[in-house]
Each structure stands twice: as structure tokens, then as C-alpha cells.
Amino acid sequence: MSAEPSSSAHLEDGEHLAVLGYEDSFNRSMTLWANFALGFTYLSPLVGVYSLFAVAMATGGPPSIWWILIVGAGQFLVSLVFGEVVSQYPIHGGIYPWARRLWGRRYAWMAAWVYIWAMIVTITAVASYGSGFLASLFGLPATKEVTFGLTVLLLVVALALNFTGTKTLATVARIGLSAELIGVIAVGLYLLIFQRKHPFSVFFDTMGVQGHGSYLFAFLGAALAGLFLFYGFEACGDVAEEVANPARRIPVAMMMTILVGGVSALFAFGGYILAAPDLAKIVAGKDVDPIPEILQSALGDVGAKIFLVVAVTAFLSCVLSLQAAASRLLFSFARDGMIPAHRWLSRVSPRTKVPVNALIVACSIPVLISLIVYLGPDGLITQVTAFAVLGIYVAFQSVVLASLRQRLKGWRPAGPFSLGRAGLVVNILALAYGIFAMILLAWPTSTGNWFNDWIVLIGLGIVAGAGLLYLFLARPDRASDAPAGDAIRVAELLRARRNGTTAPAASAEPAPATE
Questions:
Q1: Which domain holds residue 96?
Q2: How far is CA 357 from CA 324, 336, 348, 423, in A?
Q3: How far apart, in whole angstroms, are the C-alpha atoms of residue 19 and residue 491?
Q4: 259-285, pLDDT tens digit by residue?
Q5: What domain count does the chain have?
Q6: Full-prediction pTM beyond 0.70?
Q7: What does the alpha-carbon distance between residue 33 and residue 158 come to, in Å, rounded to a whole number?
Q8: How far apart are CA 307 and CA 319, in angstroms?
Q9: Is residue 8 part of a domain?
Q10: What pLDDT is attached to residue 23?
Q11: Which residues contact 464 (CB under 8 A, 6 or more apart)?
């Protein structure tokens, strides 16, 4: 694996962007650590572990912790593939421009359409889960009205902070990173060392969750514990044009996000299991929100209150990062004329250099979804979350598949970060893992309620169907002349430019036919 170009020559950020057909119009104020903090607070192990700990324990028992290692390894492979892609294409928007440059406009439009909705729904889910911490912090009852009000408050505060510019985003992301590390690693280590009530062998004890059947099915059912945790690293690439030296730094930030996030999640998940006063009650599904009791028992009233402050900070930072990533994707989509109101959505504030209108959309739609959750039946937020996870994985694998297709056509990634000959093997393994993960996510449950059992696939079908209908009726792909399917040609241009050979920018060539 290499993080250096094949030539000693180095392309400046603006020069690299010019080869891709764009002007350098953002403030590059994000450092490697700020970019990593953005991805980490989006991935947010504190959010993931807290949200699904009880479900995982009731479904798969203590061995469900091993899903963190399994999914972490699989997503690390995906991050390596993304690293090569973003190193060649360090441009705003992540999934959408990557899929377009690797395959074609229609393909990218569908990938981005699913990804946008999954990301917006994720914003809603994270803000909703965070409202519970905020309510506990101020001693408010966890009613639907309180949850809705605090969810909207988190969304609006995050929007206000995002409006102030990339420096604020980077600062809050770093604060959120510190809060995550304290709330996950520090607390997890404290629980493991000083509050352990169970032996480490409990991680291999199913505690009878399988009943009279095979434990394999119970273990597979607990996969969401890991699958919900390990996305967010792609957000490092969503803000590529605001990062200094992105072709080198973003791949590193993505890998750091996976590794540090995985270790953090293991400490937290393991600590909660080992410190649980009544583990059997949690595994039996009789305690649907066990973490407050675990923390109260281990930390006392003052310690639990401090943890709530840390948790609220982490949730706010996560919502902030999600909004930023979603707005940059919307901006990238609009800049290429691919969605309605694209001129309005692609506007960048001349003062703060952020896409303000795209940020408004990234806040207002989650507010509307929160209203639907408030008016809907209890438990709807869990179903909403399940759709978000599957949608994210579908979008991820669209890039992995497109990358593999280009490799088989002869593409050799030309960014500073390169896997070399290992790239093809890693790409195949990443795709195999992604297909396995999507099957687990889409597999219907067996509650007896047909709609609830198939809600994840129904939701994905509605989003994909609406996207296909708009795509073939409105033909947004024809509204853009942005380069597409040019991975091999751009790689040649970058190598030529580094070697000092004059070559026309990729955007000056006729764009390949849409696929």
C-alpha cells in the first residue's frame, strides 16, 4: 500500500481539481485531524452502541459483540477501495461523483438518490436518539412530544453551527471527537477494570437466546449491532474540497475512522456487558434501555450526569457532521444540474463558503420526518433506522461495484494513495462482504406482522422506484454535461501532469455516453 505518487512530482490541490474539471472555490481549512474527527463523529460509536445494545443482547446475547470485529474488518476493506477512488477524485459529494466518474450519470444518479435519502433519514434517527439523552440531562419525561421538540432543537442548533462555516464544523467535530473518546473509551475502560461483574468468558455464553434452535440464526439476527456502527467514514470524502492535500489525507482519515471507531465500540459494548448488574434481564429482553441503569450503578448520580453531558455533545456533533455531509452531497448533485432547483441548491455563501441552501434542506426534511415519526405509531423510529442502514450499504456497494468494473477494464488508480496489485483482490473481497451485509439487512424478520417484517425492503423499494420513475421521465442525467465514466482517462491525465506532460483537462473532452 502506498500513500505517495508514482512520480516525485506533486500536484497542488487546485491543479488536481482543474484536471477533474472544477475550480477551487472553497476554503481548505480542514486538517487531517479535523477530517478524521468529522468522519468519527459521523460514525459515532457512542450513538451506535447506545442505540442498539439492548436489541443486540436480546437477539444474540453477549457473543453479538463479535459483530463489531466482523463488520469492522469488512468495512475496512471498503474504506481501502474508497481511499483509492477519493485519492484520484478529491471532489465534493463522495458517493455521487465517484459513481459518476467510475460508471455513468444514470448509475450515479440512482446511487446518490438512495444515498441522499438514507443519509437524511440517518440524520433524523440520530437526532431522535440524542433527544433521549437531552431529556435525561434536564430531567424531562420521555414523551413523544418532548422527543419531537428536542429532536427539532438538535437539528436547528446543528444547522445554525453549520451556517457559520467550515472552521466551526471542524472545531465542533474535534470537540465531538473528544466527547466520543471520553464517553466510549474512558467509560468503557473504567467499566472493564473497576466495575466488572462478569467473567470475560461471558462473551462466548449465548445465555439461551437461541431457545431450542440453532444459535447461528440468533447470531445472524444480531448483525445490526455491527452494521449500524461502521458507516460515516465516507463523510471524510464528502468535504474533500475543504481539506488541504485531500488526495493523501482523506484515505488516511477514512482508515483511522474505522480503526479508532472499532476499538471504541469494543470498549463500550464490552464494558456495558461486563458491568451489567442484571445481565440475564437484558438478554431476556425485559430491559429495553439498560445503559442508564448500568451507568447509574457504576458511576453514581454525579458520574451519570457528567456522562449525559458528554453524550449530548457527541450526539450534537454527530448531527452536525451528518448535516454537513448531506449538504455537500446535495451541492455536488446540484452543481452538475442533476436535481430540481439545482441553481438554488448549488449556491455557496460568499462569506462563510458553505452551501447554505443545501444545509437548509438537510435540516428541514429531517424535521418533517420527525413530525411523521411523532404522529405515527410507537417504534417507527426503529424501522426508519433500519431503512437508513440498508440504503447506506446499497450506495456504498454501488461505488465498490463500479470500481471493480473499471479495474477489469484496465483502470489503475492514479491518486497518491494506491493499493497497487492488491487493489483487485481487496475490491473483490469488499464487494463480497457488502453483498453479505445487504442480505443480512434486508432479510425479513418474523414478528408475524407482514408489513413490519418487510418494512426495510418496502422502504428501499419505494425510494428506488420513485428515483427510477423520475430518472426515466425527467431524464436529469441529460441536464448535465459533467464528465462520466472517465476513470481510465483521468488516471492517464494525472500521470501525464505529474510527469510534466501537457495534456487537456478531462472536462475538455466529450463526456462518455450515459450508462
A1: 30-491
A2: 12, 16, 8, 38
A3: 10
A4: 999 998 999 999 999 999 999 999 998
A5: 1
A6: yes
A7: 20
A8: 18
A9: no
A10: 82
A11: 110, 113, 114
